[in-house]
Amino acid sequence: MTKEIIIRIQTPDGMKRVNIPSTSTLKDLYDMAYKTLNLLDYGFGLFSDRGCSKELRSTRSVTINNSKLNHGDVIYYKQMAGSSSQSTTSSSSSSNSITPVPMKKQAPSVVEDPVDIELFKLDGRIERKKDEKLCHHTNNSRCVHCASLEPFDESYLKEQKIKHLSFHSYLRKMTSGMDRGKFVAFEDINCKIKGGCREHPPWPKGICSKCQPSAITLNRQTYRHVDNVMFENNGIVDEFLNYWRISGNQRIGFLYGTYEVTTDVPLGIRARIVAIHEPPQESTRNAIKLLEDPLDGEVQEMAEKLGLKKVGWIFTDLLNHETISGKVKHLRGIDTFFLTAKECILAGHFQNLHPNPCRYSSNGFFGSKFVTICVTGDKENQIHMEGYQVSAQCMALVRDNCLLPTKDAPELGYVRESTDKQYVPDVFYKI
Predict the structure, then answer these.
(1) Phi and psi dihedrals of 351, rounded to 5?
(2) Which residues have C-beta within 8 Å of that of residue 13, sequence separation ≥ 6?
(3) Which helix or strand (DSSP H or E) is residue 365 part of?
């Protein structure tokens, strides 16, 4: 027959006793303490010493006997920071308990970019001319062969070799149903445990489906926030490249300009670059280290007065060709990589610093228009520029500190493993 023992729990309000079988687990002991002490949540710890340095962790793998607790032993209760304290009952019969009622969450006022306001006003439909062979009607009529198309029409995008939807075309697609987008709401991906769960002790002592972040399966993002990047003149890039031409070291700069509508893509957005600001940095032929910029505030103020904003960043990855004079090495491509893991993480960091205002998001922001420009060598060993943005999934993983670069393979990233301080969700990918 299982022997039942008494464990005394020392709390700030006095000593409490619990009767528990000696074969029970420490998880059962926490549950008994939760009920006996009339607690509001599991944000507490039990310790075997008065100094609260030897914690009895809540686990099903350790029993009372294995933890060396005996009949009549005293353990010590400690409230963890940020959790609710014990519930109290007033001794006055005339007093009433008052429970605050949460107010309905209101949508934040969103100050959208001028280019977004302009695009929302446009019809966006793709006009088609009358087909002389297939259309047998007057010029004032329309048929299935010449009727205007939606900006997200798959056959048109495939015909024009447009790989990604513009973000506003994606919005039109999401709001084109019978409800006209009444229930469309963009939410940022969450990679952290939701706080305040009262069903179990806080991580790493416990976790449940209510507070655990969902696993992430990496998917190709079908839309992009910026569809084209254009420099106002050649001198902007040439002046930026002069540092590499003189020293042979790499360089980073921040792009300043405006966003405007482009007709190359239905409801598309173009970033027009008018200036590059080169912040303090230490660079070599293979690496760059950004330093704190004491003039950052002044640069931002000057840009605002000129009607400009920080729209992206640019970096070089250029090495002179060993045998061909005036040429550079072709380092990046489909056979190697387009961006390294470090560059993707840095791009995600910059995009998180410059979120995109969006009226369909619960917090007023979704994604980012911040662009990444890489200056490197192409297949013909000429200096070439490519533009990139990382996906919303990458932004979330970077924001919640889930990604690390690898040392031996620059094209591969590494997902952190969960620790006592941070839970990291599972990340899957499709081949």
Answers:
(1) -65, -35
(2) 86
(3) strand 365-368
Radius of gyration of the chain from its Cα atoms, rounded to whole angstroms: 30
User: 24: domain CATH number?
Assistant: 3.10.20.90
pLDDT average, residue stretch 171-179: 81
Is position 141 within any domain? no
Q: What is the CATH number of the domain that holds 311?
A: 3.40.140.10
| Residue 414 covered by a domain | yes
Structural domain includes residue 61: yes
Q: Which residues contact 388 (CB under 8 A, 6 or more apart)?
A: 338, 339, 347, 371, 372, 373, 374
Roughly what angle, to the nearest 10 degrees, separates helices 341-353 and 392-399?
90
* Residue 70 one-letter amino acid: N
Q: Which helix (H) or strand (E) holds 384?
A: strand 383-388
Give the distance from CA 314 to its chain's centroid: 21
Q: How many CB atoms lie within 10 A of CB 242?
A: 11
Which of residues 50, 79, 108 is at a domain's end? 79
In the three-class reduction of DSSP (H, G, I as helix; E, B as strand; rest coil), residue 374 is classed as strand
Same domain, 75 and 221: no
Taking alpha carbons only, the member of 366, 348, 344, 343 closest to residue 356 is 366
Residue 207's closest CA among 194, 218, 217? 194
pLDDT, mean over the chain: 86
Segments forming the whole domain that contains residue 33: 4-79
- Looking at residue 99, what is its pLDDT? 36
Question: Is the model's pLDDT at 353 over the cut of 90?
Answer: yes
Q: Which two tokens stand for residue 230?
A: 């254009």
Which pLDDT band holds residue 81 (cuts at 50, 70, 90)? Answer: low
Structure tokens at 399: 């924001």
CA–CA separation, 150 and 172 (whole Å): 8
For residue 122, being part of any structural domain is answered with no
Lowest mean pLDDT among 130-144, 147-161, 382-396: 130-144
Please state, in angstroms and rounded to a whole number, the distance separating the CA atoms of residues 1 and 11.
31
pLDDT score for 330: 92
